[in-house]
Amino acid sequence: MRVVRICSLAAGLFLALGLSMSRAADLSVRTPDLADGKAMAEKWCSHCHMISPGDKRAGDAAPSFTAIARMPSTTEMSLRAFLQTPHVRMPDYHLSRDESADLVAYILSLRDK
Ligand code: HEC
Question: Which CATH number fits domain 34-109: 1.10.569.10, 1.10.760.10, 3.40.50.1820, 2.60.40.1840?
Answer without folding.
Answer: 1.10.760.10
